[in-house]
Amino acid sequence: MKEDFLHYLWKFQKFHREELYTSSREKVEVIATGQHNGSSGPDFFNAKLRIGGQLWAGNVEIHLKSSDWYVHHHEKDMAYDNVVLHVVWEDDMPVFRKDNSAIPALELKAVVPEGVWRNYTSLLKGSYDFINCEKEIGKVDPFLRDNYLERLFFERLEQKSLAVLQDLESSRNDWEAVFFKNLTKNFGLKVNGESFRSIADSISYNTVRKVRSDLLQLEALLFGQAGLLENTEVPDSYTGELHSEYIYLKKKYQLSGAGVIRPLFHKLRPANFPTLRLSQLANLYVNQGKLFAAAMEAGHIREFYDLFDSTASAYWDRHYVFGKVSGKKRSKNLSGNFIDLLMINTVIPLKFCYARHTGRDANAAILEIMESLKPEKNRVTDRFATTGIKARNAGESQALLQLYNTYCSKNRCLECVIGHHLLKN
């Protein structure tokens, strides 16, 4: 048993309330359970209780055993001075405040219905291949499930917004710089995401602003900082021009490659080679003068596809790496699937944060955009599909990722709406 189960019992009052007595046989009436505290300090703040006929207002601490009070050294922590009730599964010893007064203890093991305990053990200790409730989740009421998935989607956006706000603070509220850093990272996808982010971090966005009207300069800047122009042998004129331009830019803007992670080619499909992705990114910024503003204003999926319709420079029609000609000439455009990923991982989180920053509520518009995007396919969404939960759009696939990563994989069933529903029933 974990303390989380006792938190669940107290928060939702899953016990025989008419039979509550302290270990010293004082009647306990719960008027308000208090506010659940997920950080340091007592587990529930500002509870209201009547103990032995006297009304108390204060905090509630929860442990498996009363002796855990001393194991966790609460007797030395002033934050626990206002605890008015010690809720435990087993009361194995008395606990005292600093003034030597005893803290009333409520033992739960005798007042919890057998069905609650049985449901808990069945859910968290059963046999499963993927998640605890894989045999039951597909039977949950679709209305409850769909509403919870919507909540999970915005919970995921809230988490992503923390990183965006950190970028905003470090860039002194320069939204265009934040957008550039995040967009560059996501052009690198999973394999080169951190590498591309390190490239963006190594360049002041003011430098990008100064060169973004010149494609050769912007490509030279990105390729050079990525370490892709270090070869002293120049195989062709295009590579030579980039090399010369980068030497000039490096000196002019005092560029440093310190901290840059070299991008990888290994295990990538040629269409995702860093050479092509950096050229596509450069072309996008050269051709879209006000990319950030346009992305924030766009509301229909077709507008986004038009906005991110970018291709690598003509050199890459016959190349995937510098100096090596490929067999067939072909334009290297951004695919619709790739633009979808940019939407999900860059545009939508920035749109969410920017709307809040400007005092607007864009949740409905964001949800509409996500519902128009195809769901992501990955290991997690594929496994959920085997349980009967198949994502119908990108909003739902993001929600399923949030559900799995934040709750299912960490056995936080008691904090999950679906887990709570299954336990209740």
Automatic annotation (TrEMBL):
Provide an example Pfam family for this protein. DUF2851
Name recorded for this polypeptide: DUF2851 family protein
Please name the source species. Answer: Sinomicrobium weinanense
